[in-house]
Amino acid sequence: MTRGNPCQLPGMLPNYDPNDNEAGMKILEDLTENVEQIQQRVLEEIITRNARTDYLKGFLDGQFDKQVFKKTVPVVNYEDIKPYIERIANGDSSNIISAEPIIELLTSSGTSGGQPKMMPSTAEDLHRKTFFYNLLVPVMNKYVDGLDEGKAMYLLFVKPETKTPSGLMARPVLTSYYKSNNFQNRPFNRFNVYTSPDETILCSDSKQSMYCQLLCGLVQRQEVLRVGAVFASAFLRAIKFLEDNWKELCSNIRTGHVSDWITDPGCRKVVSLVLNEPKPELADLIEHDCSSKSWEGIIKKLWPRTKYIEVIVTGSMAQYVSTLEYYSGGLPLVSTMYASSECYFGINFKPLSKPWDVSYTLIPNMAYFEFLPVKEKNEDGAQYVQCNGVCKESCMEKETEKEDVETVELVDVKLGQYYELVVTTFTGLYRYRVGDILMVTGFHNKAPQFRFVHRRNVVLSIDTDKTSEEDLLKAVTKAKVIVESLGILLIEYTSYADTSSIPGHYVLFWELTSKGNNHLPVLDPKIMEQCCSTVEESLDSVYRRCRRKDNSIGPLEIRVVQHGTFDALMDFCVSQGSSVNQYKTPRCIKSGEAINILDSRVVARFFSQKAPFWEPV
Ligand code: AMP
C-alpha cells in the first residue's frame, strides 16, 4: 500500500502479511494519514456497487454522484429499513439493499419491537473483520513486548442461532465470526495463539464451553501472557464460575480426566489432549491460590505471566472497572476495539491508557462515516459527562428532529464536540444511525479519535442488554396492574443496575400506597414476586436471553421504599442543580448518593423467582 494508492484489494482492503508487524503499522499509518481520500473512495465504491439496488435506486435515480447521495438518501433509523431487512429474511433474493449477496443476518443487542435488530452481512464483510482484527496485533506489539512468547487465554463464546424463513442464518456477529472459515481456518499467527481450542469456543452449551476453556487456561497457566473476554461482564462471569467450580477443575487436573458431565464430544476430545496426564503439583498450586480467603489479585496469582486483561471496559462496561481491578492485581485493562453488528468501527491506538481515557480511532476503510452533531444539554446546563456508557440520571438527551441537522464528515469533526455516529456500510446500510454518542478527543495523524460517551436512550445495562426508559415504563406498567387490582397504587418508581455482585441485576425502587388511605399497604410476597417476574417477561428479548440462557443477569429485584422517599430524591436532585420547575423523577439512578438516599428508606425487598421466557427469534 502506498500513499497515492491507499487500497489494493476489492472492498478497499489492503493486502499484507498479518505476521508482518511493520507492514501492519505502515497500513495503520497510511489509513490514518489518508482519511479524506479513503472515505471518498469508500463512498464512491459503495455507491457504484449498489446504486441499482431497490433501496438506493429510489433515491439516486441511477446517478452515482456523492453529492446526490448526501442530498437525497435520508439519514435513517432501523424502523426505516426494517421492511427491506424483512424482505431479505423472507427470501426475496433480488438486490434489495446490496448488490453483493446477503449471506446472513446479524442479530444485534439493540432491539426493535422487543426483538433483536438484524443487520445484513456479506462474504466480503468477513474479510473486512479479519483485516480489522489483524490490525489490533501491531498496536499491542508496539506497547507490550514478547506477546509471541506465550498464549492468550481469551474466553470466547458462541450464542444460539436461528434461521430466517428463507433459511438465512440469524445470529450474533461474534457467533458468525467464530463459526466462519476466517476464524476456524485462520493462518497461524504467533501473536495470536489461544489456550482455548476452537472446539471449546464453538461448543453451544455455554456451561461446558466455560468449564473447558477455564480448564485449558489453568493447565496452560505458565504459558498465558494475557487473559480476556470480549466484554468486562463476560470476564467477570468467568471469575465467578471459577469461584464456584475451582475444586472440580483442580480435581480434573489432578487426575488427568475431564468430568463426566462434559459430554460435548469435541470438547471432551480436545480437553483430554490438553490435560494429557495427571498433574497433581499443578492442581496443588491452583488449589492453594483458590482456597485463599481473599480473591484480590487472583488473576495475577493464577496466571503469573499475564501482562494485561483484554476486555472492553468503556461504555456500559465501565461499571465493572473497580471489580476487575480488585481481581486483576494491578494488571492493565485493555479495551482494544469499538465495533457492532452493523460494522467494525475503531481501534484503540493507546491500549494501555486508563479506562476513562480510552479513545477509538475510526478506521476509514471500514465504512463511510458521518456524524450528527449533538447539542442538547442537561437540564442544569451541563454537557454530557462520562456516565458508564448509559444516560446520566433521567435521560438528558432530548430527541431532536435530527433530519433537519446536517451531518459532518469524518475529517470535519471538531475536537471536544459530541456526535451521533451514522454509517454507510459495504453491506447495505445507508446513512444509518448507529445510536452511539461519541466525543472527539484528538487525532491520530488525520484520523479523529473518539471517546464512547453513551448509547442513545439506554438507561439500564448489565451485560449486552440495552434497556431504554420507554422499555422500562412499558414493563413497569404491566406489573403495576397486578398490585392495582389489589387496591395498591404505584406512585413513583426508579431503577438502577446493581453490579455489586456477579451477575449484576436490575433493581426497581417502588413507592406504593393503599388506594384511599395513603398508607403503606401490607404486601404479599408472592404478589410482589409476580410483579418482578412480570417486569422481566415484559423486557426485550436480549434482556431475557441474558437472564435465562446466558445467566449473565441475575433475578430482578423490587425494593419497596417508605413514603416520602421520592420527595427526598427530588430534594437531593434539586440540591445538585436540577431545576425545581422542570424536575421529573429520574427513571434510572447512577449517583451513589442518590442510591443511598433510596436504599436507606427501603422497607421490603422482593426478587423474581423464575427466569423469563426466551427463545431465539
Ligand atoms: P451489537 O450491535 O450488539 O454488536 O452492539 C454494538 C454496540 O455495543 C455498539 O453500538 C456500542 O453501543 C456498544 N459497544 C461496542 N463496542 C464498544 C466499546 N468498545 N465501548 C463501548 N461500547 C461499545
Automatic annotation (TrEMBL):
GO terms for cellular component: cytoplasm
Record keyword Coiled coil present: yes
Coiled coil: 21-48
Keyword Ligase belongs to the record: yes
InterPro entries, alphabetized: GH3, GH3_C, GH3_M
Transmembrane portions of the chain: none
Protein name, per record: Indole-3-acetic acid-amido synthetase GH3.17-like isoform X2
Organism: Gossypium australe
